[in-house]
Structure formats: C-alpha cells, structure tokens
Amino acid sequence: MKKLKRSGRLVDMTNFLLKHPNQLIPLHRFSERYGAARSSISEDLGIVKEIFESEQMGYLTTVAGVSGGVRYEPAVSAREAKTLVESLCRRLEEPDRLLPGGYLYMMDVLGEPGWMNEIGRLFAGIYRGQNIDVVMTMATKGIPLAYAVAAYLDVPICIARRDHRVTEGSVVSINYVSGSNKRVQTMSLARRSIPEGSDVLIVDDFMKGGGTARGMSELLTEVNAHLVGIAVLVEARHSERLIDEYISLVRLDEVNEQEKQIKAGPGNYTNHLQY
Amino acid sequence: MKKLKRSGRLVDMTNFLLKHPNQLIPLHRFSERYGAARSSISEDLGIVKEIFESEQMGYLTTVAGVSGGVRYEPAVSAREAKTLVESLCRRLEEPDRLLPGGYLYMMDVLGEPGWMNEIGRLFAGIYRGQNIDVVMTMATKGIPLAYAVAAYLDVPICIARRDHRVTEGSVVSINYVSGSNKRVQTMSLARRSIPEGSDVLIVDDFMKGGGTARGMSELLTEVNAHLVGIAVLVEARHSERLIDEYISLVRLDEVNEQEKQIKAGPGNYTNHLQY
After folding, report:
1. Which residues form the Bacterial purine repressor N-terminal domain (chains A, B) (predicted)?
2. B111 vs A156: CB contact, 8 Å cut-off?
C-alpha cells in the first residue's frame, strides 16, 4: 500500500477493523501497511477509538506488550439495545403475523440483513470475552441470525438438522422430545462440523419449551464439545422449560388467536448487558 | 452527534457507508450529522472515495442534483476475485472433502463468515445496478452465502424448502425433477416471503444438473416474481444442464473417488466482472 496521510489511514483503518472484529491486530501491521511511525498509528487509533465509543459501536481494546495490538469488539450499548428490542417487539406485535396454532410469521424479520446485523452485534457484545469457537444453530430459519452473530464473533457456524442429508459425511444423531408438543424427533449434526473440545454458542430464532435447545446441547456432548450459552431471539411463555440458562431478546407475553392480539416485551437480556 | 473534526468525520463516514451499502445517502444527512458545511463533506467523501478505490472495495458513486447523494456499491476487483477463487479452488481440492457418491463436504467453507463475506461482495459486484429486490435460496447449506450476498445488496433473503413447515403460513409448492438423479421432488415457498413483481436473484452453493435452480425459478413464476439471475458458488460438470444462464465462481472439473482426486478451476464468472 502506498504511503498514506492521516486522513487516508483513518478511512482504511476503520474499514480494516470493522472487517476483522475480535481479531488482535498487531500495531506493526498498520505501521508497515501505511509506512508510518508507530506513534502516528497510536494517535490514529485514539481518534478511531473516540468515534467508535461515542457512536457506541463496541470496544476498541488495546493490548500492550510485544504480542499486543488492537482489537475491535463489537457490542451494542444498553440504550441502543433498548431501542432495537422495542422496535422488534412492535414489529412482532403486528396482528397479521399470527399463524394457525399460535405461531408467528417471523421470516421477514429473520431475512433482513439490516436487522440481523444489529441483533448479531448485540449478542456478540453479550458473549464478548467468552472465547467462543463455533456458533451452532438448527436449520432453517435461525441460520441468518446465527451467521450474523458468528460474523461479529469471527467464528464459523455449524448447522444441526432435522433430516439427514447425504452430503455431510459421518453424522451423529440423537432423539429428543420437543418441549412444547412432547413429540419424539431426531436431530443430526455432521461430526466434522465441530472439532472436539470446541466452546459453542447455540443461537436460535424461537424457543418455546426448550426441547430443541436441549437437543442441541446433547448433540454437543456427543461430539465432546462444550456449551457456552444459548441465545434466542424470541421466547414464548411456557409452563415447564427444559433448559435453565439462556438469553432472550424478546418475550412473547400473549398470543391470542381469537382476538388476533400479540403482546411482546423485552426478554431477560437486560441482565446480561456489559456495555 | 457533536461537531466533529475531519478526522472524526472520516471514521464515522466510513463506518456509516459500509453499514449502508447500495443506499443513496443524501449529502445533507452528513452535513447535519456533523454540523459541517456541504463543501467540507464533499472533500471528506473525496478522501473516502480515494481509499475505497485504491483498496478495491467497490464504487463510491456520487449522484448530483436535489435528490442526489452518495452510494457505496460493494464489489471485488478482477485481480482480487482471481486470488479469492484460486484459494477457494485449492481448498475444495483437499482430498478429505470427498464423500461417498462423489459429493464434496463444503460446510466448513460455507460456514465461515470471512469467506462468505468476500464471496458475497464479489457476487454483489457482479449483479450491481440490476435492481434486485430479494435474494432467494434453497435450504440449508446455501443460506449463509445467500445472506452474505443479500447483506451487500441491502435486500432481504427468502428461503425455499424441501419440506413444508407449519410456521410459514400460506405456501406455494411445485414438483420438480432433479437434473442429476431424475427423481421427482417437492419444493415449497412461503407466499408472503416474496412480494408480487419482485426482481429476484437466486443464490445457491452447488449446482449439478440445475434441477433445483430451475425449480426455484418455477416457484418465482408461481408467485409472479421475476428472475434476474442465478449465482452458484460451485458447479459440477454435467452432460445436460436444465438451465442456460447462471454465473458460477468455481467449476469442478474432476471428482475421482477411486484416486481421491478433485480438480477445481474458475467458473464462468470471469465473463461477468464489471470492476
């Protein structure tokens, strides 16, 4: 890269840090990249940090020492999270989402990169510093959300499935009982999709009884991986929950099919915000 | 936002443009945001443009006039695309990807946000200016790729499925013949996931005979939507292809199960690069 002035460096640095979240970038990488002194780079980073912080985009952490550097850790501030979750609740309360059986149509929200990126950054901030290796989800609808979280954490995603497709190689399967309708179902995971010993975050779009999440955590045990946490976008009220610990953004308090009324409020995430 | 100096504006502007790809941002939005004169904003954008272009991140297009503004259109340069596709080919040639039946295990690549973001930007650049409203894919493995393309195009994704799950509302289904094994299968799409008249880009991870892609395009006809193009990450060689027009990044030239040999080369995307 040709020698850049401060203004050019700031544009390039911002782009570089946003593209490499949660990676420790050694300072010499920047000084070599721009042909600039380390002291200039430190000043540049001070400016970047000020803006990232005033815009509440997360943390710009500097690690001192020989193996040190700078790391951008995406997060969403409590205030911004509140606004985001409130607008999500209002969207989910739209009466035409109601489907037979008290389900909600959510694919429009789940398929919108703008929303998923914000929510992904929020979850990435909540699980910041927990050394997650893999984000796991269940096919199909939760995949965009899981991907968005994984992108901010800078880790791969892996997908458990209710069928067993031929193109995955050796597969581990378990039977599990759905928490809401008590039916026995099967879920499968390609063995090579999670290396042994991985620390795994489960991400899903919807939780009722928690049977799917518990099934996924049992799959993790089968492949000798370790569950770090369970993050769900929307939890429905349910009398007996099969899992204890999870973080939800939205809780459905009421889904009334007769009167076409949905009431949604913030989930338990407010207890887990760091930022 | 408090009044910012040029250095702060550049960091914030870069972040803002990257977060809103393919959206026309009126210049007054920036001048109000920063309490800066329009002439200063224009100078700022000149600096941003220079870096975006020298780093080959895509186009920063300025639209003049009252309803004008600036738009960041992500793309990948021909040189960078070549490097990206070549390293993708080398990865796909790893012999331990071979699965029974001549299939390749690709989920590790498809689940890595780093790769998907680059490939997403490449496809977004290829279909730049084509007014795409929705990206459509088939569950399951292609979803992260489709999401990445959609995020750069700033449009939602919708997912066709081989099953028919209850939580989607009114569904349109078709039967289709798989191009490779001639089996009749069913695919379904939630009617409300694609508004009538939408211009749709189909994105998939793998294409052999093209039956799935043709099925998806038939689904589009059923919901009165319009096919803009078909983008596939990897195409396998096949004697009779059921579709004519598609853009592929990688072509599998040889998959030899006996000798555990895979040969991959660039697909036809090189004819479609604009950048």
Report:
1. 5-74
2. yes
Helices and strands: H and E segment counts in chain B: 8, 12
Distance between A72 CA and the closest CA of chain B, angstroms: 13
Query: Can you tell me the distance from the alpha carbon of B108 to that of A19, in angstroms, rounded to the nearest whole number?
Result: 20
- The residue of A12, A34, A162, A183 whose CB has the most chain B CBs within 10 angstroms, and thus the best one to mutate to test that interface, is A12
Q: Is the pLDDT of residue B68 over 90?
A: no
Q: Which of B111, B90, B97 is nearest to A198 (CA)?
A: B111
ipTM of the shown complex? 0.96
B15 contacts A51? CB cut-off 8 A: yes
Residues of chain A with pLDDT under 50: none
- Of B8, B116, B151, which has the smallest distance from its Cβ to A113's Cβ? B151
Note the pLDDT tens digit of each residue in A121-151. Answer: 999 999 999 999 999 999 999 999 999 999 9
Lowest mean pLDDT among A48-52, A182-186, B29-33, B162-166: B162-166
pLDDT of residue B132: 98
What's the pLDDT at B166? 59
Cα-based distances in Å from B44 to A8, B15, B36 = 10, 13, 11
CA B197 from chain centre, in angstroms, equals: 20
Interface of B with A in 179-238 (CB under 8 A): 190, 192-193
Domains of chain A and CATH, by start: 6-74 (1.10.10.10), 78-272 (3.40.50.2020)
Instruction: Give the chain A residue whose CA is nearest to the CA of B112.
Output: A156
Q: Burial level of A28, CB count in 10 A (0-12/13-18/19+)?
A: exposed
Residues 6+ apart with CB under 8 A from A213: A202, A204, A207, A230, A232, A242, A243, A246
Nearest CA in chain B to A206: B167
pLDDT band at B77 (very low <50, low <70, confident <90, very high): very high
